[in-house]
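Below is how a single chain appears once it has passed through the pipeline. First comes the sequence as given, then the structure the pipeline wrote out for it. We keep one example in the README because the format questions we get most often are answered faster by looking than by reading.
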Amino acid sequence: MVKRPGAKFAVFVLAGFAAIGTTAHAACNGPAELVAKLKAHPTTDNAILLGSWYASHKQFDCAVATFRAAIKSDPKSGQLHYLAGLAFVDGNHTADALPELQAAVQLDPRSSSRT
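Resulting structure:
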């Protein structure tokens, strides 16, 4: 039996969406080499390299933007969805993380074991 979230959870989720809307996005300043590589060859692997760099330097909004841009070209990549979900969690946007993590599990149940 699936347990449905209560009203408190719904308020938490709505508050999370409101907070995301008011978050200022800083300019994404990744290493020129990785940025140029992704622009020249916009592959999933290059997006993972740059997005992971952003995440490791606590630029979670930039990581999410990089992973989501790559998802537009490779929507069936469980790994991209998983990494976007992790970046959302690390950036304290847990409500946005859930759909990404669910997509990762549906597309590739093993995606979470790759990082």
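DSSP finds six helices and no strands in the chain.

See the next section for the split statistics.
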